[in-house]
């Protein structure tokens, strides 16, 4: 691809990027506003249930102030424009869950836990699944390959949370070597004991993701791609020429299966910012998934929008970067 063609390709992809995030943010705004939960009314209900305010006029004043604070006043169009302004700064006002803490600060506090869990589990799953899938395809007649294939076909349709419940029963209840939930994590000071406590609390959530992901999708996709590449004419010709198998695997097979797998990895990493909602909720792991679950349950628009916006940016940016580097690493890819 010439320099001019590459520039035109990049500009079109950037336009697609902005069109994608605009559409995604608009749909997100619409869906969240259609939720049958009103956080302000929930707050008013809690206050009246505790007997803190009895005067109806005072409650009405408080209600109006809460609607103004959370940006829920004005016409739907005015609220939508105010929302779009917040999209570019990731500032959606105070959290309803932890008022008056800004939702952005709440997300920043929970973000390292999610990155620590999902970034490493995604990378580990990708490496293990692709290696096992490729070896299984190369030795497809071996007993171990057939066993791994059976395990993968069984694990692939199983949701993460089912594996999480199985692990809790086995390793937290039957053989209690890991804590039941991440609520045991304390960060008063960072020392060896705190690090070990974090690792113990994160082990079961990480295992529930790695087992299903590595031995499920990543294994099956890698094995299928390897079998397909093995059947290509140029690979059979390489074997007929008597080239060493290690060279054939490295030069002709591995390079061709890595391209789509790297693409899938980039997209998977882009989705980590939304957290593993159900897994984190089951283990009470203090990540963005748990925070998002609580925000949606209580109608906390500010916090939910902050997390979903971060996830949209992650997926869209990951896709844009992959689109831009594809023509550089694969000459077969071009813009039409």
UniProtKB/TrEMBL annotation:
Bilayer topology: Multi-pass membrane protein
Any one of the GO CC terms: plasma membrane
Localization (cell): Cell membrane
Primary localisation category: membrane
All residue ranges annotated as the ABC transmembrane type-1 domain in the record: 111-326
This protein's UniProt keywords: Cell membrane, Membrane, Transmembrane, Transmembrane helix, Transport
Record CDD domains: TM_PBP2 (cd06261)
Any single biological process term in GO: transmembrane transport
Annotated transmembrane regions: 12-32, 110-138, 158-178, 198-220, 257-285, 305-329
Pfam families: BPD_transp_1
SUPFAM superfamilies for this protein: MetI-like (SSF161098)
Entries under InterPro entries matching the protein: MetI-like, MetI-like_sf
Family listed: Belongs to the binding-protein-dependent transport system permease family.
Protein name per the record: ABC transporter permease
